[in-house]
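Class, study these two lines:
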Amino acid sequence: MSRHPRLVIVTLGLMIVGAAFAQNSDKPSTADQKRTIRVGIATTANRSSRQVTPTWARDQLVRELQRMRADRKSQIVLDVVSLDATEREDASAEAEKKRCQFFVLTTVVNPNRGPGITGGPDGMQRAPVMIGNTNPNQTIGVDFAVLEVGTARTVTDGTATAPVESNNDIRASDDAMRFVAHRVASELRKLPSSFD
């Protein structure tokens, strides 16, 4: 008779553990809760006097965003792809073909101290305005915009600047693209799920 109560207790214990396991297995794991956002990076336009290779600048932004693909504090995972197009309409169409939800346009520009408008082969362009003692001739600027595929609605835009040291335009461009990558990743991770 003394064995029966033990058997009942062991059986009850197993049933409780089984029920707890069944309840927990119904909940989605954190991996199931992750959302992937596919973003296309257009080839960089160079409207500056700096020696920046458009595909190199684009690839630097792609590399930086791939490093930030996942963030343990965010449920958003970034899936980054390169685009050959540079202009908005072409980049939007290519991003749609590559099943992207968003695309990023970047343009290397000459910073200035004036009203923030410069002339170029494409007409008037916005340029970053330098404040303080920074020498615009020793600074590189990168305008960027994140747009939604299909609507071409701007999600965020801005300008990154970096100092040019020892006339190394590529290094300055890489530094500016690093800032752009952080901003793009941050803004995409703030998007509500309705953007999926």
About this structure: The chain is about 35% helix and 25% strand. The chain has one domain: 29-195. The longest helix spans residues 3-26. Residues 25-31, 113-125, 129-133 have pLDDT under 50 and may be disordered.
